[in-house]
Amino acid sequence: QVQVVESGGGLVQAGGSLTLSCTASGLRFADYAMGWFRLVPGKEREGVSCISRLSGNTYTADSVKGRFTISRDNGKNTLYLQMNALQPEDTAMYYCAARDGYLGAGLALRPDWYRYWGQGTQVTVSS
């Protein structure tokens, strides 16, 4: 049974930083492209950043480029999202997702491409 679990969310002031983590079990982590997505009530789920199986390729939304960095440690079955210079508009539920296969640019930030999802971790940025 595949399980994807996010952690690291919380309340932070504008300009602050947080690091999200995501662990995946029940699958061979190194075979899966991984992504971070976020959801604000009333809006569509937004692709934030994603990373290929061996970290060779990353794709990041323009809205967070230069502030957020995705990385992974295949030895620890863990995905990370380092978030710096957080702004109130970054407030959302953040989800981790996994999909086996090649991560192409056209599909990378599309939520419907991913197969397994976590329950999410809330990030709230106060002004």
Write a concise synopsis of the structure shown:
With 127 residues, the chain is an all-beta fold. It contains no helices and 11 strands.
Verbal overview:
The protein is mainly β. Helix content is 0%, strand content 50%. The protein has no helices and eleven strands. The strands form two sheets. Strands 2, 4, 5, 6, 9, 10 and 11 form a seven-stranded mixed beta sheet that branches. A four-stranded antiparallel beta sheet has the order 1-3-8-7, with no helix packed on it. The mean pLDDT is 95.
The overall pLDDT, averaged over residues, is 95
* Major sheet: 7 strands, mixed
Between the first and last Cα atoms, what is the distance in angstroms? 40 Å
Q: Helix and strand string, N-terminal first?
A: EEEEEEEEEEE
User: Can you tell me the overall shape?
Assistant: globular
Helical segment count: 0
Stretches where pLDDT falls below 50 for ≥5 residues? none
- DSSP strand tally: 11
Proportion of strand residues: over 45%
Helix % is under 10%
Topology of helices and strands:
Blueprint: E1 3-7, E2 10-13, E3 18-25, E4 32-39, E5 46-51, E6 58-60, E7 68-73, E8 78-83, E9 92-100, E10 116-117, E11 121-126
Parallel strand pairs: 2-11
Antiparallel strand pairs: 1-3, 3-8, 4-5, 4-9, 5-6, 7-8, 9-10, 9-11
Properties at a glance:
127 residues; globular; 0% helix; 7-stranded mixed β-sheet; mainly beta; 50% strand
